[in-house]
Amino acid sequence: KVELLRDQWGIPHVFADSDAGAMYGLGYATEEDRAFQMTYTLRIIQGRLAAVLGNIPHTRRNETALDNDRKMRTFGFSRVADRRFAELDSGSIEMLQAYSAGVNAY
Fold first, then answer.
1. C-alpha to C-alpha distance for 21 and 5, rounded to whole angstroms
2. C-alpha separations of 27 from 15, 49, 55, 99 in Å
3. I need a labelling partner for 75 at 20 to 30 A (CA). Which of 2, 22, 31, 82 fits?
4. pLDDT tens string for the chain (106 positions)?
């Protein structure tokens, strides 16, 4: 059982019978509040931002979205995250899967 309540300021409070339930509620609340930010950040880290925005120039640097994508793919943050995930213990994987399920449920 998971209960997500928001206080008068809109701050989410998650109550659950299990840690996995709490992570599910947290994922749901995070997606509800931060859907665009999460998607945008994921595309930046994966080096896939230009696919959505086009090859627009950055306003403060002499760099385009495609230049940034090349740089991020060269750094390989997404590949490293995939490798690190494979090394996690089963309890951590369960928590991350519960969080992802909450994100996807929203």
1. 14
2. 13, 23, 31, 4
3. 31
4. 999 999 999 999 999 999 999 999 999 999 999 999 999 999 999 999 999 888 888 777 788 989 999 999 999 999 999 999 999 999 999 999 999 999 999 9
